[in-house]
Design goal:
two-stranded antiparallel ribbon; mainly beta; three-stranded antiparallel β-sheet; 21% strand
Length: 94
């Protein structure tokens, strides 16, 4: 038994009842909604393989400088308009 992923939304009537399948829904390959609609599904392995990055990811910047390395640091910006001491008891504005 394999799990398939719907690649497109559709509605199917199973035993006279409508069943909505959304793109991205996971369905077992034994489910009656799959009969005659295999073209609307892909394997989970295919889906994951398509989402893999084609190029290697850039290196992540280290948090500390190596010995002798200069770092360009910018001071953090805060979204606060008043310092904490200028606000009311509950953190609101005075």
């Amino acid at each position: 038994m394999a799990i398939k992923r719907a690649i497109a939304p559709f509605t199917a009537y199973i035993d006279g009842m409508p069943r909505v399948v959304r793109a991205g829904d996971l369905v077992e390959d034994t489910d009656p909604v799959m009969q005659g609609r295999m073209h609307l599904f892909e394997t989970t392995e295919e889906h994951v393989a398509q989402r893999q990055p084609q190029q290697p990811r850039p290196q992540v910047e280290t948090a500390t400088a190596e010995p002798g390395e200069q770092r360009n640091l910018t001071p953090p910006t805060s979204g606060r308009s008043k310092p904490p001491s200028a606000r009311g008891r509950r953190g609101g504005n005075k």
